[in-house]
Design brief:
heterodimer, A: alpha+beta, Heat Shock Protein 90, 32% helix, B: alpha/beta, Transcription Regulator spoIIAA, globular
Chain lengths: 151, 117
């Protein structure tokens, strides 16, 4: 569909049970553009991870706070924005630090996942509205994948 | 998320169904592992055939289970890992932590051999 663009807008509570709805809505939208399934899955993984962070770290699971998601998709590029209502964090530090967490650490992989499955990850913060994560991915390019590692 | 539990060749298979995302599920999982370890069952196979995807908090749940059974002298392995989860394990380097097998039989055989070493 040359020249066409689709926009997805969602507002979800700060509850992990709604992550599935985000994934499903994006998957349905992306398939209208005949994108490769791996590409769709990659971006959806990054998008869901951004929502995870918004719920956990931004809104701190508060029932009074929402997560706003806007995804703009055309045949060339996709841009997703995830907005929380939190107080922000030192994202410059996290973006510049590429070292992974300790292997047995149960936390600390959200930004790694977003950076792996999106071409660009940008954070911005407005005290009035909260933190926004913008994910960009060029259509067709997939992230670093492996074959299954067996021991 | 649903968890079906059964035994296979001396190991316990936890067949998960749904999305592994953390949150309230974390407590459910921790209790399952705690109960299994208390019963002396410390070789665990987590079958991900019916798990569509996982996020970072879901990874934390798996790591928590792994740490628990390893401390008890056992092991936790994965089987039927789909492409989407495999990619996530790869980019987070958790493919170096978790042994993953094609199916439950292969996973059970690995645990059996490990137990006899």
């Amino acid at each position: 569909m040359p020249g066409s663009q689709k926009i997805l807008e969602l507002v979800i509570p700060s509850d992990f049970r709604y992550l599935g709805a985000v994934d499903a809505a994006f998957q349905d939208l992306a398939r209208e553009f005949s994108c490769a399934q791996r590409w769709i899955d990659d971006f959806s993984t990054a998008l869901v991870e951004a929502c995870t962070n918004a719920i956990e770290h931004g809104n701190k699971y508060s029932k009074d706070k929402k997560v706003r998601i806007v995804v703009e998709l055309n045949e060339n590029k996709i841009v997703g924005r995830v907005q929380d209502e939190g107080e922000g964090f030192d994202f410059e530090k996290f973006l510049s630090d590429s070292s992974p967490p300790d292997t047995l650490s149960e936390r600390g992989r959200g930004i790694i996942i977003m950076k792996a499955f999106a071409d660009e990850v940008r954070f911005s913060f407005d005290p009035k509205t909260g933190l926004c994560v913008e994910l960009t991915k060029v259509c067709g390019q997939t992230g670093p994948h492996s074959s299954k590692a067996k021991k | 998320m649903k968890v079906n539990q059964r035994e296979l060749s001396g190991a316990v298979v936890l067949e998960l169904q749904g999305k592994l995302t953390g949150g309230p599920e974390a407590e459910q999982f921790r209790n399952i592992f705690k109960d299994l370890i208390q019963d002396g069952k410390k070789n665990i196979i987590v079958n991900l055939r019916k798990v569509e995807w996982i996020n970072s908090t879901g990874l934390g749940i798996l790591i928590s289970g792994y740490t628990s059974v390893r401390k008890a002298g056992g092991d936790l392995v994965l089987c039927n890992v789909g492409d989407r989860i495999d990619s996530i394990l790869y980019v987070t380097k958790l493919n170096l932590l978790f042994s993953a097998f094609e199916d439950e039989a292969d996973a059970a055989e690995h645990l059996r051999k490990r137990s006899t070493v």
